[in-house]
C-alpha cells in the first residue's frame, strides 16, 4: 500500500485487495476510453459518420458496452469529448480497439484508456407488449 503522510490512510491499494474487498459483487472488468478533440470540432465532424459506423460494428460484435458524448459541466454544449466503454481481454486490447476508431486514425481526437471494474449498478428494461414499446433506465 502507498501511505498518505496526512494520516488519511493509504493513497492506493493493490488490485487484489480491491477484489477481495468487493468479493461477491459483479467484478466485471471493462475499459473506459476517454476521447478528446485534437484541433477543434471540424476534424471531428469530418469523420463522425465513419466513427459512428465503427461504434455500431463494435456493438454488433458484443465489444461495445456503452458510448456517447460528454457534455460540458453546465450541460449546455458539447466540445467534442466522448467516452467509450468496451469489453476487452486486456488494456492493450482496449487500446487496439481505440486505435482502430476512424476518429483516432484520422487524428481528430486523442484518447486515454482506463481499466474500470464494475461492481454495482442496475439496468431496468420494461417491455410493453400491447404498445410494442420499451423503456430503459
Q: If you had to describe this structure to a student in words, what would you say it looks like?
A:
The protein has 137 residues and is α+β, with helices and mostly antiparallel strands. The protein has one domain (27-136): Dimeric alpha+beta barrel (Alpha-Beta Plaits), CATH 3.30.70.1060. 28% of the residues lie in helices and 38% in strands. It contains 5 helices and 8 strands; from the N terminus they run E-E-H-E-H-H-E-E-H-H-E-E-E. The protein has helices at residues 15-21, 42-46, 48-60, 91-100, 102-105, and strands at 2-4, 9-12, 28-37, 64-71, 78-86, 109-118, 125-128, 133-136. The chain has a 4-stranded antiparallel beta sheet, with helices on one face. A two-stranded antiparallel sheet has the order 1-2. Strands 7-8 form a two-stranded antiparallel sheet. A hairpin with a 6-residue loop joins strand 4 (64-71) and strand 5. The chain is globular, with a radius of gyration of 19 Å. The mean pLDDT is 94.
